[in-house]
Amino acid sequence: MAKTKAGIAPIFLRIKAFIVDMFFIAMPLLYITTYLILGSKEAFQENQFAIAIVWLIYGLITSIFIAKSAQTPGYKFAQIYLIDLKTGRKISFFKAFLRFVCFILAGFSIVGLFLCFFRKDKLNLHDLLTQTAPVIKKS
Q1: Of 22, 32, 62, 89, which is most buried, counting CB atoms within 10 Å of its CB?
Q2: How far is CA 24 from CA 28, 96, 99, in A?
Q3: pTM of the model as a whole
Q4: Which residues contact 74 (CB under 8 A, 6 or more apart)?
Q5: What 3-state DSSP class applies to 132?
């Protein structure tokens, strides 16, 4: 069986996939926590623990998607796959969750999120730290 060729996914596709994931995964979590669990927007804004739990659950859900099929719903929409740079295969749940943690930490340093605009290979800091790459199939 021949290997499928892949290239690093364009930045605009990754941004589009991220936005889709925010709407399909994060927004329902935020809504449920805000209105069904805490009861109001004000209660949610004052509860940093609840906010942290929502983003932890978001990270767990996206990590499960990535470990199972190498795609989140947003990646599926954009036809992107997340692979291990060394093996070319999908990554484990733990590596996917570590990538999410690195993404959050990279957000504290704006350089980490915008690194892809200055690198030839277009990888972000969380991709470099976890040796992963969002790719699209080349025909």
Answers
A1: 62
A2: 7, 18, 20
A3: 0.90
A4: 16, 17, 18, 19, 20, 21, 22, 24
A5: strand
- How many angstroms separate the CA atoms of 75 and 124, rounded? 16
Q: Judge contact between 66 and 96, C-beta under 8 A.
A: yes
CA distance linking residue 88 with residue 3, whole number of Å: 10
Closest CA to 107 of 94, 125, 83, 120: 125
12, two tokens: 């605009």
- DSSP-derived letter for residue 70 is S
Cα distance between residue 88 and residue 82, in whole Å: 9
Domain edges within the chain: 6-137
d(CA 2, CA 9) in angstroms, rounded, equals 21
pLDDT tens track for 74-103: 999 999 999 999 998 999 999 999 999 999
Can you say how many angstroms the Cα of residue 49 is from the centroid of all Cα atoms in its chain? 21
Instruction: Select from 29, 35, 137 the least CA-distant residue to 83.
Output: 137
